[in-house]
Each structure stands twice: as C-alpha cells, then as structure tokens.
Amino acid sequence: MRRKFSKGLSIVLALTMAGSLMACAGADDNTASSAATQQAESKGEGTEAAAASEEADPYGPVAEKITLHVGRSEDTGATYLDGQDSSNNYLVNHISEKLGITFEYDFSVPSDTYETKVSMAITSGEIPDVMVVNESQLRQLVSAGAIEDMSDAYNKYASDNLKAAYDTTKGISFASATFDGKLMGMPSISPGADGIPMLFVRGDWMEELNLEEPKTVEDIVNIVEKFKAEKGTTNGLIVSSKIVSKGGSNTYGIDALFARYNSYPKHFITGADGKIVYGSNTAETKTALEEIRKLVESGVIDSSFVVRDSSTCEELITSGQSGIFFGAWWNMNWPLNGMLSDDPSIFWNCYLAPLADDGKYNTAMISPSANYLVVKAGSSEAVKEAAIKTMNYQFDIDQDQGVSLKADPTDPYSWTTMPFSILLSRYDDKEGKALAALEVINGKKDVSELSGEALQWYESYQAATKDVKSASEANNLFGWSYVRSAGLLGQEVGNMNQIFDASYSRTETMDSKWATLEKLEDETFLKILNGEASIDSFDEYVEQWNALGGSDILAELEALKQ
What we know:
Elements: H1 6-27, H2 34-44, H3 48-51, E1 66-74, H4 90-99, E2 101-110, H5 111-124, E3 130-134, H6 135-143, H7 151-157, H8 160-167, H9 172-177, E4 178-179, E5 182-183, E6 186-187, E7 198-202, H10 203-209, H11 217-231, H12 255-260, E8 268-270, E9 276-278, H13 283-297, H14 310-318, E10 324-327, E11 348-351, E12 361-364, E13 371-375, H15 381-399, H16 429-441, H17 452-466, H18 468-473, H19 478-491, E14 496-499, H20 508-529, H21 537-561
Parallel strand pairs: 1-2, 1-3, 12-14
Antiparallel strand pairs: 3-13, 4-5, 6-13, 7-10, 7-11, 8-9
Helix pairs in contact: 1-8, 2-15, 16-17, 16-19, 17-19, 20-21
C-alpha cells in the first residue's frame, strides 16, 4: 500500500494546529506539568453531562465505562510501592478512576520479547483492543485492514497539551503513521536531544593546562595530545566499535566527526538531485573516513577501538585513563558524576564540536517516533476515545513526573508503569526544560513558574552548586548536569545545521536484507579506519550494498514519498 502524505496529513495537521493554539504559549517552556495535571484533575471530576457535551472533554470520563484490553511491554526494572505492580499502581489506578476505564492486560511481557509477542498476536489474529507496534508491524496491520483509522478520534479527544507535543515534531510523526490520508496509529514522541552527540572533556584538566574551548578537529587533536603529554593518558579520544548510530544517542561513537564533513552514516538523506540517498554511501562519507583514518594512524583515536565495547570505554573514562569522548546530553550525569564521589574537584565540560566549514554544528536528527499505538479494527468509539484520553493523561503525568499524584515525594515513578508502553514527550523536551531552569537560575523568572522535571533539575542544580560532594553522596547531581548539557543544546539551536532524514520509514526489503547490508557496512568502515583496507574499498562496498538490496530499498523509499 502506497502512502499519501500530502492531502491527508495537511488535514490532520490543520485541525491539530487549530486545536493547539491555546496550548502553545504555555507549552513552549516545556514546563506544562502540574498545571496540566490540575486541569486534568478538575475536568476529570465531570459527570455524564460533561461526556454528553457537544465538545469532548479530553480529560472527562469516557461516554461508557469499558474494560480496555491492552498488550504492553513490561519494564522489568521498574519499582513499585508495596503491594503494587504494573497492573495495579497509583498511576494506572488514577487514570482508571478518572476515565472510567478498567485496564486488562491481555499480555504484558519483558521488552526484549515484546516484539515477538506482538508478531505472534498479529499472526494469530488475536490482538488486544490496544497495543504498541513497530513500523513494520504497523504496515502489516494496515495492509491487513486490522486496525482503526484514528484521525477523527485524535482531532476530537486529544488534549491541547498532547497536540502541542505532536506539533514539535513538525509533521514527521504523523507522516510516519499516515496511510492514504488516514492516521492509522498514534506515534510515540522521543526527545530529539537524545540523538545529538556532544563532546565531553575533563574541565579540570582543561583549566589546569589552560586549554581553549574546542571548535575544530585540530582543537580536539590538541586536547588529546596535551592530555597525553601532561596527564599521562594513553588512550586518546575514547571510541567504541559502534562508531555511528541512527536510533538515538551513541555514547563513545564518532557521529560528530562524520557530520563535520557533511557525512551522515545510517541516515537516509536528500541528495543534491532531490532523491533519497543513503548517507553511508556518499562522497562526503568517503572523505570523512579518510580524515578519521588519519586520527587513528596518529593515535588520537586508539586503534584498539575496533574491539572495544561501551563498558570498556566507560572504565577508561571513569578510571581517569582518558578525558575526552563523544556522548549524549545525559552522559554528563552518567557515568561522569560517579567520579565526583571520590574526588569532588573533578568536573566535565560539554561542547558542540567540531564545527563545519560554515561555523555551525552539523547533526543528524533522530526520528521523533519509533513505535505506534494502534486500535483493533471494529473497535467501538468508546475504545478509541479511551485510547486517546489515556494518552492525554500519560503525557501530562509524565511532564509532571508524577509529582502531583505521589503520596510521598520518594514514591517511585516511571512512565513505563502506566497502561500504555509508549513514550510521549516533546521533541524539544530536554532543551526546553533546561532553558526554563536556567531562566530561574539567571534571575529572569521565579521558581514558582517551574514544575515537573524543570523544577527537579533546578533544585538539583542549586543543591550541587552549594555542596557538590553532599549532592553527589545524595545522588542529586542529575539536574546540575542536565541543565548544563541540555541547556547548551537549547542555547545553541540557532547555530546548528539539524539534518532530518528524507525518510525514517522501514521498507519490505529492509525487513529481509537490512542485517546483511548493515554487517557489510560496519565491517567495511572498521577495516578502512583501522588500516586493514584501503580507502578505495569504499567504492566496492557501495556497489555491493546496492547489489545486495540497497538499490531496491532506495526505490521503495522514493515510492513512499509519492
């Protein structure tokens, strides 16, 4: 089935934006949490009269009380209050009470077996009312006519806050779930910050050695050489064998080095002719491989990276054997803050480097949506209403980090313990919360204007500023870290070239041949970088990639654009 995005999506987005105008002002600072939850609380007290009103209440009880059968991914690492579990906890019970829904889990299995369980349910035809699927499974269900069109339900029942969150994805989320003008699944929303690599450097060493902020590859090389000469490090820039990634943060990867040369491996980008090309196979990637290979030859990147996993990289960093690596915004907290328990004088800085020739920071952006909540075909209006309204509550509760619902501030919280195992954030979530906290720190706003994670980050920042050792012992350095790292992303957004994929879709040929293609790519790149293969082997790799199914994938992606 061919996707037609333009007409159907424009209708959905037009209605979405119209419904979101009132929410945008409050949502832009990413602190819509306790206020949103209070709104939900007050509206949730409505009676049958509210349900019968002409305009649906996004937080009111469903028109008829129902039992909603759910398939979900079980977070085996989640913690609960005594006597509670994934089907009976204060979050699930709150949503159930407010909406008049009884949640019954047809299956709730560990995340590592969830996709298999869903595939089995699809094959048997015994799918629950609601479940979360990946893109391949979504496409399969659409082709089989097994799920409901959610366009009308979304426009009717979605809250302003949820609509504003989808607006931050700039249409990408809905495009991925739209078939022939119909919204066939409710996409997840992951924070875009998760996919932006940052350069982390030992700040205490930089101060000691009087080193300037790095901006270029040459600056990074200078830092590595100084650390080796003056601090006795032997491993240079810490890199793992997973050199690039598409699906989110790549701690110890070198995505940023490739991007400096306008190279975006693992991403399907728009070529000069307007057609989709695979970023791993471009002339720019060949240039990047050649330049990065020089860093390996000179020892700036230790050649043993080809057999190094992330745990080994972590040990080299936390033991002080290196002081520089690429990671995600959250790496400022973990694993780096663990070092402060032993030595509070240690601190790390983060940067957006190296810069491209235009002086800006190039970065490929991850897809906002990795999975989709679907509703079984033939479901009643009440089921679709229940699905969307549950999402309204889950979004608001997560923005508030469950604070308004906790009997005790120490009560455990995780979005994974709510009924639907789907992440609903804002694409600009982390940057917005960090900037909101910074405005209070800098005296531009009052702390009373913060809520949810933004407030938590601010309070952690203040505690660490007063006494970093005590904050470290209390495991309370996260906000101090996130305000600096995610705050930098927010402050520098205007100085980034954010590259979005021409398509984030997964095609039929990908399903059958991607593992082979990815193995070919990974092995070729590692051999080139480590000197086991010449740079000219890149051209042979591209030919093989196309012959083994790559050209078919590009053709399929082009077809999906039409």
